[in-house]
Amino acid sequence: MNNDQIFRSRARVLDEDLTGRASTAGADALLARIVALEPALEPAQARRRFMPSPRRALLGLAVAAALAGAVVVGPSLIGRSEQVYASQAVTIDRVGDEYAFYFTEGDPDPAELQKAFHKVGLDNLRVTLFPVSPRMPAGSVFGFEKSDPDAIATFAGDSCPERVEDCITAFRVTADIKGPAEVRLGRPAKPGEKYDFPVDASRPGEALAGVNLRGRSAAEAAGVVREHHLKVAYELDWPLPNDEKGVRFEADVPASRIDPGWRVATAESYNDGVIVLHVVPGPSATPPPGF
Prior knowledge:
Blueprint: H1 3-10, H2 25-36, H3 53-56, H4 58-67, E1 82-86, E2 90-95, E3 98-103, H5 110-119, E4 125-132, E5 142-146, E6 153-155, E7 169-174, E8 181-188, E9 199-200, H6 218-227, E10 231-239, E11 247-250, E12 263-269, E13 274-280
Helix pairs in contact: 1-4
Protein backbone atom coordinates (compact mmCIF):
# COMPACT_ATOMS: atom_id res chain seq x y z
CA MET A 1 0.00 0.00 0.00
CA ASN A 2 1.44 3.37 -0.97
CA ASN A 3 1.22 6.70 0.89
CA ASP A 4 -1.82 7.93 -1.06
CA GLN A 5 -3.76 4.78 -0.23
CA ILE A 6 -2.79 4.93 3.46
CA PHE A 7 -3.90 8.55 3.92
CA ARG A 8 -7.01 8.15 1.73
CA SER A 9 -8.19 5.21 3.85
CA ARG A 10 -7.70 7.08 7.14
CA ALA A 11 -8.62 10.66 6.30
CA ARG A 12 -12.08 12.02 6.87
CA VAL A 13 -11.39 14.94 4.53
CA LEU A 14 -9.94 14.04 1.13
CA ASP A 15 -7.78 16.08 -1.23
CA GLU A 16 -10.67 16.77 -3.62
CA ASP A 17 -12.62 18.26 -0.70
CA LEU A 18 -9.82 20.77 -0.09
CA THR A 19 -9.38 21.99 -3.66
CA GLY A 20 -8.75 25.73 -3.76
CA ARG A 21 -8.07 26.07 0.01
CA ALA A 22 -4.84 27.69 1.15
CA SER A 23 -2.15 25.67 2.91
CA THR A 24 0.49 26.96 5.31
CA ALA A 25 4.21 26.40 5.76
CA GLY A 26 3.52 24.67 9.08
CA ALA A 27 1.01 22.33 7.50
CA ASP A 28 3.41 21.48 4.68
CA ALA A 29 6.18 20.74 7.19
CA LEU A 30 3.86 18.56 9.25
CA LEU A 31 2.78 16.58 6.21
CA ALA A 32 6.39 16.08 5.12
CA ARG A 33 7.28 14.76 8.57
CA ILE A 34 4.38 12.31 8.69
CA VAL A 35 5.08 11.03 5.17
CA ALA A 36 8.69 10.40 6.18
CA LEU A 37 7.41 8.18 9.01
CA GLU A 38 5.46 5.77 6.77
CA PRO A 39 4.96 2.53 8.74
CA ALA A 40 6.48 -0.67 7.47
CA LEU A 41 3.59 -3.08 6.97
CA GLU A 42 3.99 -6.77 7.59
CA PRO A 43 1.67 -9.43 6.16
CA ALA A 44 -0.12 -10.11 9.46
CA GLN A 45 -0.12 -6.69 11.11
CA ALA A 46 1.10 -3.12 10.81
CA ARG A 47 4.05 -2.21 13.04
CA ARG A 48 3.20 0.93 15.06
CA ARG A 49 6.07 3.41 15.06
CA PHE A 50 4.53 6.84 15.06
CA MET A 51 2.10 6.74 17.99
CA PRO A 52 0.23 4.34 20.34
CA SER A 53 -2.70 2.44 18.93
CA PRO A 54 -5.55 4.59 20.41
CA ARG A 55 -4.27 7.62 18.52
CA ARG A 56 -3.66 6.05 15.11
CA ALA A 57 -7.19 6.86 13.96
CA LEU A 58 -6.45 10.56 14.52
CA LEU A 59 -3.63 10.59 11.98
CA GLY A 60 -5.73 11.03 8.85
CA LEU A 61 -7.93 13.65 10.45
CA ALA A 62 -4.94 15.59 11.72
CA VAL A 63 -3.28 15.56 8.31
CA ALA A 64 -6.42 16.67 6.48
CA ALA A 65 -7.25 19.41 8.98
CA ALA A 66 -3.68 20.72 8.93
CA LEU A 67 -3.81 20.91 5.14
CA ALA A 68 -6.91 23.06 5.50
CA GLY A 69 -5.13 25.33 7.99
CA ALA A 70 -7.71 24.52 10.69
CA VAL A 71 -5.80 22.56 13.39
CA VAL A 72 -2.31 22.66 14.85
CA VAL A 73 -1.28 19.20 16.02
CA GLY A 74 -0.22 19.44 19.68
CA PRO A 75 3.04 18.13 21.14
CA SER A 76 1.22 15.18 22.74
CA LEU A 77 0.89 13.61 19.29
CA ILE A 78 4.64 13.58 18.73
CA GLY A 79 5.84 12.60 22.22
CA ARG A 80 6.80 16.03 23.58
CA SER A 81 5.66 17.76 26.76
CA GLU A 82 2.56 19.92 26.50
CA GLN A 83 1.39 22.52 28.98
CA VAL A 84 -2.16 21.72 30.06
CA TYR A 85 -2.60 24.09 33.01
CA ALA A 86 -0.87 27.16 34.46
CA SER A 87 -1.56 29.48 37.39
CA GLN A 88 0.51 31.68 39.67
CA ALA A 89 1.22 28.72 41.96
CA VAL A 90 1.59 25.70 39.67
CA THR A 91 2.17 24.75 36.04
CA ILE A 92 1.19 21.29 34.76
CA ASP A 93 2.63 19.59 31.68
CA ARG A 94 1.51 16.35 30.06
CA VAL A 95 4.62 14.29 29.28
CA GLY A 96 3.75 10.95 27.71
CA ASP A 97 1.94 8.88 30.36
CA GLU A 98 2.73 11.31 33.18
CA TYR A 99 1.83 14.74 34.45
CA ALA A 100 4.67 17.04 35.54
CA PHE A 101 3.88 19.58 38.28
CA TYR A 102 6.07 22.70 38.64
CA PHE A 103 5.51 24.84 41.74
CA THR A 104 6.31 28.54 41.96
CA GLU A 105 4.76 29.10 45.40
CA GLY A 106 5.89 27.38 48.57
CA ASP A 107 2.50 27.64 50.26
CA PRO A 108 -0.05 27.38 47.46
CA ASP A 109 -3.73 27.72 48.27
CA PRO A 110 -5.11 24.16 48.62
CA ALA A 111 -8.29 25.21 46.82
CA GLU A 112 -6.21 26.46 43.89
CA LEU A 113 -4.30 23.18 43.76
CA GLN A 114 -7.50 21.16 43.79
CA LYS A 115 -8.78 23.28 40.92
CA ALA A 116 -5.61 22.45 38.99
CA PHE A 117 -5.87 18.73 39.76
CA HIS A 118 -9.53 18.68 38.74
CA LYS A 119 -8.58 20.34 35.46
CA VAL A 120 -6.42 17.35 34.52
CA GLY A 121 -8.66 14.68 36.04
CA LEU A 122 -6.64 13.98 39.21
CA ASP A 123 -9.38 14.71 41.72
CA ASN A 124 -8.06 12.09 44.17
CA LEU A 125 -4.54 13.52 44.29
CA ARG A 126 -3.35 15.50 47.30
CA VAL A 127 -0.04 17.37 47.50
CA THR A 128 1.63 18.74 50.61
CA LEU A 129 4.62 21.06 50.34
CA PHE A 130 6.60 21.66 53.51
CA PRO A 131 9.72 23.76 54.25
CA VAL A 132 13.13 22.11 54.47
CA SER A 133 16.65 23.49 54.48
CA PRO A 134 17.62 25.00 51.10
CA ARG A 135 20.96 23.27 51.60
CA MET A 136 19.48 19.79 51.69
CA PRO A 137 20.02 17.72 48.53
CA ALA A 138 17.21 18.25 46.05
CA GLY A 139 14.51 15.62 46.44
CA SER A 140 15.88 14.23 49.70
CA VAL A 141 12.49 14.78 51.37
CA PHE A 142 9.87 13.18 49.14
CA GLY A 143 7.03 10.79 49.89
CA PHE A 144 4.27 9.15 47.90
CA GLU A 145 1.34 7.17 49.27
CA LYS A 146 -1.19 5.59 46.94
CA SER A 147 -3.78 2.85 46.71
CA ASP A 148 -3.04 2.17 43.03
CA PRO A 149 -0.14 -0.33 42.83
CA ASP A 150 0.76 0.86 39.34
CA ALA A 151 0.95 4.57 40.22
CA ILE A 152 4.42 6.13 40.29
CA ALA A 153 5.64 9.54 41.44
CA THR A 154 9.19 10.86 41.06
CA PHE A 155 10.98 14.04 42.10
CA ALA A 156 11.71 16.42 39.20
CA GLY A 157 12.74 19.63 40.93
CA ASP A 158 16.41 19.39 39.97
CA SER A 159 15.57 20.53 36.45
CA CYS A 160 12.39 22.56 36.97
CA PRO A 161 13.96 26.05 36.61
CA GLU A 162 14.72 25.14 33.00
CA ARG A 163 10.99 24.67 32.40
CA VAL A 164 9.29 27.34 34.52
CA GLU A 165 10.70 30.66 35.69
CA ASP A 166 10.98 30.94 39.50
CA CYS A 167 10.20 27.22 39.89
CA ILE A 168 11.08 26.02 43.39
CA THR A 169 10.26 22.30 43.19
CA ALA A 170 8.57 19.77 40.94
CA PHE A 171 7.49 16.16 40.58
CA ARG A 172 6.00 13.79 38.00
CA VAL A 173 3.14 11.40 38.59
CA THR A 174 1.30 8.74 36.62
CA ALA A 175 -1.50 10.38 34.65
CA ASP A 176 -4.16 7.69 35.14
CA ILE A 177 -3.96 7.16 38.91
CA LYS A 178 -6.81 5.06 40.25
CA GLY A 179 -7.94 5.82 43.78
CA PRO A 180 -6.58 8.31 46.33
CA ALA A 181 -2.92 9.33 46.34
CA GLU A 182 -0.79 11.84 48.25
CA VAL A 183 2.57 13.40 47.45
CA ARG A 184 4.64 15.00 50.22
CA LEU A 185 7.36 17.20 48.83
CA GLY A 186 10.00 19.30 50.57
CA ARG A 187 10.48 22.82 49.26
CA PRO A 188 13.19 25.37 50.15
CA ALA A 189 12.31 27.26 53.33
CA LYS A 190 12.05 31.02 53.21
CA PRO A 191 14.63 33.06 55.16
CA GLY A 192 13.95 32.58 58.87
CA GLU A 193 11.24 29.97 58.28
CA LYS A 194 11.29 26.94 60.57
CA TYR A 195 12.04 23.64 58.88
CA ASP A 196 9.55 20.80 59.11
CA PHE A 197 12.44 18.35 58.74
CA PRO A 198 15.72 18.69 60.69
CA VAL A 199 19.12 19.14 59.10
CA ASP A 200 22.70 18.64 60.29
CA ALA A 201 23.50 21.94 62.02
CA SER A 202 27.12 21.83 60.81
CA ARG A 203 26.25 21.88 57.09
CA PRO A 204 27.33 24.96 55.10
CA GLY A 205 24.84 27.76 55.54
CA GLU A 206 23.29 26.31 58.70
CA ALA A 207 23.45 27.65 62.25
CA LEU A 208 26.69 25.83 63.22
CA ALA A 209 28.30 25.66 59.78
CA GLY A 210 31.69 23.97 60.01
CA VAL A 211 31.40 23.19 63.75
CA ASN A 212 31.67 19.48 64.48
CA LEU A 213 30.11 18.44 67.78
CA ARG A 214 30.12 14.72 67.12
CA GLY A 215 31.92 12.81 69.89
CA ARG A 216 32.13 15.77 72.27
CA SER A 217 30.67 15.56 75.76
CA ALA A 218 27.16 16.88 76.24
CA ALA A 219 28.48 19.63 78.52
CA GLU A 220 31.15 20.78 76.04
CA ALA A 221 28.74 20.69 73.08
CA ALA A 222 26.12 22.70 74.97
CA GLY A 223 28.75 25.32 75.76
CA VAL A 224 29.69 25.66 72.08
CA VAL A 225 26.03 26.05 71.10
CA ARG A 226 25.52 28.84 73.64
CA GLU A 227 28.67 30.60 72.45
CA HIS A 228 26.91 30.94 69.11
CA HIS A 229 23.93 32.56 70.90
CA LEU A 230 21.72 29.57 70.23
CA LYS A 231 19.52 27.53 72.57
CA VAL A 232 19.99 23.85 73.41
CA ALA A 233 17.49 21.00 73.34
CA TYR A 234 18.20 17.30 73.88
CA GLU A 235 17.19 13.96 72.43
CA LEU A 236 18.45 10.60 73.66
CA ASP A 237 19.44 7.97 71.09
CA TRP A 238 18.63 4.66 72.78
CA PRO A 239 20.05 1.53 71.14
CA LEU A 240 17.56 -1.03 69.92
CA PRO A 241 17.13 -4.12 72.13
CA ASN A 242 18.65 -7.52 71.42
CA ASP A 243 21.71 -6.01 69.69
CA GLU A 244 19.63 -4.89 66.72
CA LYS A 245 21.14 -2.15 64.55
CA GLY A 246 19.72 1.34 64.84
CA VAL A 247 18.42 3.60 67.58
CA ARG A 248 15.16 4.95 68.98
CA PHE A 249 14.86 8.68 69.62
CA GLU A 250 13.49 10.04 72.88
CA ALA A 251 12.61 13.68 72.19
CA ASP A 252 12.22 16.69 74.49
CA VAL A 253 14.47 15.30 77.20
CA PRO A 254 15.04 17.78 80.07
CA ALA A 255 18.63 18.83 80.79
CA SER A 256 18.34 17.32 84.28
CA ARG A 257 18.36 13.82 82.73
CA ILE A 258 21.48 14.42 80.65
CA ASP A 259 24.79 13.26 82.13
CA PRO A 260 27.37 15.94 81.23
CA GLY A 261 29.81 13.21 80.26
CA TRP A 262 27.59 11.46 77.73
CA ARG A 263 28.67 11.88 74.14
CA VAL A 264 26.94 13.72 71.32
CA ALA A 265 26.07 11.75 68.19
CA THR A 266 24.68 14.57 66.02
CA ALA A 267 23.51 18.18 66.26
CA GLU A 268 20.41 19.17 64.30
CA SER A 269 18.76 22.44 63.43
CA TYR A 270 15.18 23.39 62.54
CA ASN A 271 16.26 26.96 61.70
CA ASP A 272 14.48 28.33 64.76
CA GLY A 273 17.48 29.29 66.92
CA VAL A 274 17.51 25.94 68.74
CA ILE A 275 20.13 23.21 68.30
CA VAL A 276 18.95 19.70 69.13
CA LEU A 277 21.81 17.62 70.55
CA HIS A 278 21.38 13.89 70.03
CA VAL A 279 23.09 12.32 73.03
CA VAL A 280 24.04 8.65 73.46
CA PRO A 281 23.19 7.42 76.98
CA GLY A 282 25.96 5.77 78.97
CA PRO A 283 26.03 1.97 79.39
CA SER A 284 24.55 2.16 82.89
CA ALA A 285 21.63 4.38 81.86
CA THR A 286 18.14 2.93 82.18
CA PRO A 287 15.74 3.68 79.33
CA PRO A 288 12.21 4.86 80.17
CA PRO A 289 9.24 2.51 79.73
CA GLY A 290 8.73 1.66 76.10
CA PHE A 291 12.40 2.05 75.17
